[in-house]
Amino acid sequence: MNVPGIPKEFVPSPKVIPDFGAGKLRIEPESLLHWLVMSLLACRNRLARCERQDCKAPLYVRMHASQELQRIELYSEQIAELEKSILGLAKTERSYELLLKLPGVGQTIALTILYEVGELTRFANVKVFSSYCRVVPGIAQSGNVSRRGRASKQGNHYLKAAFSQAAVHAVRCYPKVRRYYERQLKRHQGRGRQMICYNIIAHKLAQAAFHVLKEQTEYREELLFGR
Length: 227
Hints:
mainly alpha
């Protein structure tokens, strides 16, 4: 990729985009996050190098790099200030502390659940809540035949992501949840069985979150995953 006025070492390789978009790179979520962070850091380093006086880039390129770095610093400070304020406000609510006791739920996921759910009374029951969180499997029907289908796109995708991430962490770090996950794996067949089992656990965590928030009671693992 040739960009007028910018040295080629400051331009990211275009080969990553078509390969990634075509699905040729299969990256785990943790690896993908690491890749994104490293890409952002690399971009910031390129800007810093481009800002230096000894850089061969034209003056207007160095000026633009300097302004971009100033924006990054400003946005970073504002984001940190907002996060501190939001976390301080959340710590005053009992619901936040109760959510932290759910398996796989940390500060960020607890904040996402707390503020994305909003007023719990708008959900008639746990089924409606689970459907809103998009953790309920869809149904594909053809005539008299019904089978598991794709999940609906209706609902809150932030809550879907929060409970899905919590499910992955819970399987990894909580032995009882791990054993439940392994039992579910034995019951399902096919290439997508792991995703199905993770979604089952995400559904259970959403149910637990509903009852915890509604009844303001602590999470009890034996009620969700057995003894």
